[in-house]
Specification:
single chain, mainly alpha
Length: about 90
Amino acid sequence: MSHIVTVQDAVTAFADFMEPTDAELDAIEQEMPVILADVDLLDAHIVILDRTPTELDARRIRRARRRALAARVALLNSAAGASLPGGAA
């Protein structure tokens, strides 16, 4: 005789309380420029996987790397400015 079991774990895994909070969504939104810059850098690296990089490819990677670093610096500066008391930057 086989027993019937519930699938409550599978059902509750997608319950409403498992959704990201507004604070988490705001944090993702603030980090989105960094994420997009990293995707561009990754795309530039993927392009040269199956061929010898040209000078144009090297410039594309350097630009993408600079944009990724600039996005990280901007995120850190905005986070540091937001944490200072009195709104001083």
